[in-house]
Amino acid sequence: MIQRIQTLFLLAVAILSGLLLTGDLISLNTEGGTVFSLGFRGLTENGGEVIQRIWPLAVILALVPVLALVAIFFYKKRSLQMRLTMLVLLLSLGTIILGAFYILTFDRKIDVTVVWKIKAVFPLICSILAWLANRAILKDEIRVRSYDRLR
Predict the structure, then answer these.
(1) Which of 40, 81, 133, 140 lies 20 to 30 Å from 8 when distance is taken between CA atoms?
(2) Model pTM?
């Protein structure tokens, strides 16, 4: 299980997406000096007070590491593992799209300057790693089917 490269890819996805559950993804600065942060808890102000809960983003951010860890343990059921990995890929891309949507929506309400944190690229890295894991699982499936054909 651990010697397979897709396990390492999925483990990296789980760790990176688990890191998204802590801290802020993006900071939004206003001209008045108010700093808003977008993260797992939602949209927060300077003092940590939650202004708006963003449940869709929070659910996606919580599902990605859980599904990546579950996919690791389905190594004997490669077709299910490929589906879970593809779902992790789509949810990671959904995190990017949903985060951009909320930033643009908030920018329309109040004029803000976006300050990108390093965690903002984690969903993109997670989606690339999930795609690489899916390719490796597919290669394993092709290899197993070729061995079955030889029997």
Answers:
(1) 40
(2) 0.87
